[in-house]
Write a structure and sequence with these properties.
Elements: H1 2-23, E1 32-45, E2 50-56, E3 62-66, E4 71-76, E5 79-89, E6 94-99, E7 102-111, E8 115-124, E9 127-137
Antiparallel strand pairs: 1-2, 1-3, 1-9, 3-4, 4-5, 5-6, 6-7, 7-8, 8-9
C-alpha cells in the first residue's frame, strides 16, 4: 500500500512539473482572433495633468490575431497596423510581444474561452500611465 501511494505521488509530481515547464510554451489558450471592445486607465502628461478614461470600443473594428506559429497582427479599421511575434507565458500570466525590434510585455488580468483582459504600464516620457484593455474572442 505504501509503495503504491509513493508511486502515485511521484507520478503526480512528475506530471505537475511537466505541465509547469510546458505551460510557458503552450499558447493554445490565446490563439485566435480577439476583438478590442473596451479600455480604461489613466495617464499623466508631460505637463503633469492626469487624464482618465473608461471607453467602449466595440464599434472600432480593431482586433488582434495570435497565430499558432507565434506570430501576431493587430488591425485597426481594416488595415494591419502592426505585426510581429509573441510569447505566451502561462505561469507568469504574461504575453511578450516583439515588434519593430522592441519587446513589450502585457499582464494577463483575465483569460477565458471568450474574454482576454490585459494590463500594461506606459513609460513614455510624454505620457506615462496604465491601461487595461478588454478583448472578446471572435
Amino acid at each position: 500500500m505504501f509503495a503504491t501511494s509513493l508511486v502515485i505521488a511521484c507520478l503526480a509530481l512528475f506530471v505537475a512539473c511537466s505541465k509547469s515547464d510546458d505551460a510557458s510554451n503552450d499558447s493554445s489558450a490565446i490563439i485566435g482572433k480577439w476583438l478590442f471592445v473596451h479600455s480604461q486607465g489613466w495617464k499623466t502628461s508631460a505637463d503633469g495633468s492626469t487624464i482618465t478614461w473608461d471607453e467602449d470600443h466595440s464599434d472600432d473594428l480593431e482586433f488582434g490575431v495570435f497565430n499558432s506559429d507565434n506570430s501576431y497582427l493587430y488591425s485597426a479599421g481594416g488595415d494591419t497596423t502592426e505585426n510581429g511575434t509573441y510569447i505566451y507565458n502561462s505561469p507568469e500570466k504574461t504575453i511578450y510581444v516583439t515588434r519593430e525590434g522592441r519587446s513589450v510585455s502585457f499582464d494577463i488580468l483575465q483569460l477565458t474561452a471568450t474574454q482576454l483582459i490585459i494590463g500594461y504600464n506606459s513609460t513614455e516620457a510624454s505620457c506615462a500611465g496604465y491601461c487595461k484593455e478588454t478583448f472578446e474572442r471572435n
